[in-house]
Amino acid sequence: MLQPADISRVSESILARLDRVNSARERALAETRQLTRLSANAIRAVHRGDFALADDLLSEARRIKELLTSHLADYPAIYWSGYVQDAHKEFAEACLTRAIIGGDPLPGPEALQVDDAGYLNALGEAAGELRRHVLDAIRHGQLERAEKMLEVMDEIYGVLVQVDYPDAVTNALRRTTDMVRGVLERTRGDLTLAVEHQKLSEALARAGRALPESH
């Protein structure tokens, strides 16, 4: 016959497990916030040209990410939750942005320890950061540099547009791909205008030098 003590024993065991899950979730929330903040600060450092600071921030971010992975080893449901995977994507985006702008070899998903879908989405987000870099280069008159970064953006879009799997597999990569297409088109337009302006300025300068001096 069922005894009240049996119900209490079962419920106590369930509550103990739920308490551990909740503790793991709270810890994961704190660590993902740190990871996201460090990644964002690293990207800002890259745009300022402070690669040493960016590397320090990314090193700390990687340490936090590894701790997070270790803490969630027994909690796969939390590990694969949206906020944890989003933090991984932010970290990957920062690493990819640092590599592209810094001219370093591109790390793969294995090196960053992120899943393939997260990596591709991070690559798309990095293309958005490249637009900012292109605009900065245009403002500084570095059109050759801007054209090189535009080529990288175009290459990223070429990769993403080939991925034709359901959103459940790619974590809604189509939205990221659409974003990259829009960013690429706007950036190409901005760079085209800058190049045409430079050509016009050079033509006017040549015309001015060709005019006979007035006496």
TrEMBL record:
Top-rank lineage group of the source organism = Bacteria
Molecular function per GO: sequence-specific DNA binding
The UniProt entry, under InterPro entries, shows:
Translin_sf (IPR036081)
Q: What's the protein called, per UniProt? A: Haloacid dehalogenase
Query: What species does this protein belong to?
Result: Thermalbibacter longus
